[in-house]
Design goal:
The protein is α+β, with helices and mostly antiparallel strands and about 170 residues long. It has two domains: about 1-40; about 40-160, minor pseudopilin epsh fold. Helix content is about 35%, strand content about 25%. The chain is built from four helices and ten strands. A hairpin with a 5-residue loop joins strand 6 and strand 7. The N and C termini lie far apart (about 80 Å). The relative contact order is 0.14.
Amino acid sequence: MQDKDLTKMYRNNHGFTLIEIIAVLVIMSIIAAGVLVRTINTDQMDLMAQVAKVRNHIRYAQAMALKRSDKNWGIKCDGSNAYWFFEGTNPDDSPSQLPLPGEISSQILFADINVTMNGFELYFDKYGRPYTDLTPITPVSIPLSITISGGSGSVTLSVTPETGLIQ
């Protein structure tokens, strides 16, 4: 009879019960959810979304230059309220300003997207090479920096000389 009592005593000491494991997992998930909610900042997510949008708009201008080699294509930012996509050599000429894909207006206003950008002019030739000016022809010789600020931070895009790669 003593052997049976000893067997009962030692039988349940080999691990955790399923209820104990579930309780620990529930407590850990509650703590993780609380930490996650405190670390996510929607301002940062909005800024990163706008940076991706600007990057894609610049890539679109380069793709149009490669596709339609009869003209130069580019993006201009006035540094204060807007940026726009254009064809030709005069970015300030209203008829040469075209709406970007998914946009209604030819100019994208900073007030609508809650960001600011430094001013720049960026042209692409039929080979996709970036230029900062066409009169006189001035190719991008050092990486062109485009700083986009909004909310709680800023991000700098870099346009690589010769290839126009945007990082």
